[in-house]
Amino acid sequence: MAESKWADAGVNTLGNIPVLTVSENSLAKAWETSLLVLWKHGCRVKTQYDQDDDTPPSIDSTMVIEVKQPLSEPRIHRCFPGGIEDLQEYVMELVEGVKDHWVRDPNDPDDKRWSYTYHERLTKYPVLGKDKVFRDQLEVMIDQLARAPHTRRANVITWKVWEDPTVDDPPCLQSIWTRMLRDDASDVWRLNMNVRFRSRDAFKAAFMNMFGMVTLQNWLASRVSEAMKAYVIPGRYCEINDSYHIYGFDLDAFHDTFLDTISGPENKRREWEDRVWNSTDPMVQDIMREARADVLKKIEKQDANRT
To answer: Going from the N-terminus, what domains does the chain have, and what CATH number goes with each?
Structure first.
């Protein structure tokens, strides 16, 4: 791929990583806008994953994304690389931990399974100095918020400083921070969430991450509501991405499957209503329901093969 083909993408920032900000009402719109802003204002930089010297530089930035109403519809953007089934599988992995048993034993050099899942890091974080003793950080967070909704200490992390700096695939998600405010007029508590990623594939991974994180936010709000015996709903959702990027080797696919739907040839362009789905649509709900059973069967099959 010739570099000149993408000469109009990104900017020269004279050695500084641009800090970009996006604020939208819905999840789907926030993701779409973040990619358009990144495409126009991100910087060009090589990465450790470039396939060869001819690979164009990635488009990168530090990106802050606010979703004002994370559960508002439409929630699903049809241009993310994946399908509704993939969203369901990711939610089950992140919120329910259906793949936590795939995490390798760090003391076994022959164990080649995953080094982590986010759910495993959030709910089974090891207590240093105590063999096989773990902390469920999400349960601690729920208890903190129920006791003091305004606390600034409801924070969970994934990073293991004694392990992650030297592994090949350390977690991209670093932390989740929550705090609650009450609308005195309606007596409703809103659970606000901040999420920090050190590195994020904006095109291929970010939407599924965002959809999963907002689902987790809704789950946390429900659990805190039960603990407080009060009405708690998700408030605004905010992400801080240290590196929010589109890889150079994905630029063709990004242009063909995303940009063209917004500003490409007439035969590829789609109106906003045709670029999104409502998560409450019966078709979407049916696919997710069927996917749930399929995901569990797939995991069972993979477990059997691994054994």
So the answer is: 16-306 (3.30.572.10)
171 contacts 159 by C-beta, under 8 angstroms: yes
Token readout for 269 is 């362009």
CA 186, CA 178: separation in Å to the nearest integer?
21
Q: Which two tokens stand for residue 181?
A: 């405010």
Q: Return the SS3 of 109.
A: coil
Residue 296 CA to chain centroid, in angstroms? 22
- Three-state DSSP at 298 gives helix
Collapsed DSSP state (helix, strand, coil) of residue 116: coil
**Residue pair 124/140 in contact by the 8 Å Cβ criterion:** no
Residue-wise over 42-62: b if at least 16 C-beta within 10 A, else e? bbbbeeeeeeeeebbbbbbbb
Task: Tell me the C-alpha distance between 303 and 307, whole Å.
Answer: 6
Asked whether the beta carbons of 122 and 142 are under 8 A apart, the reply is no
Asked if residue 84 lies in contact with residue 286, where contact means CB atoms within 8 angstroms, the answer is no
Q: What mean pLDDT do residues 133-147 have?
A: 97
User: Alpha-carbon distance 150 to 144, whole Å?
Assistant: 9
Amino acid code (one letter) for 196: R
The 3-state secondary structure of 148-207 reads CCCCCCCEEECCCCCCHHHCCCCCCEEEEEEEEEEECCCCEEEEEEEEEECCEECCCCHH
pLDDT tens track for 243-264: 999 999 999 999 999 999 999 8
Q: Are 243 and 119 a contacting pair, CB within 8 Å?
A: no
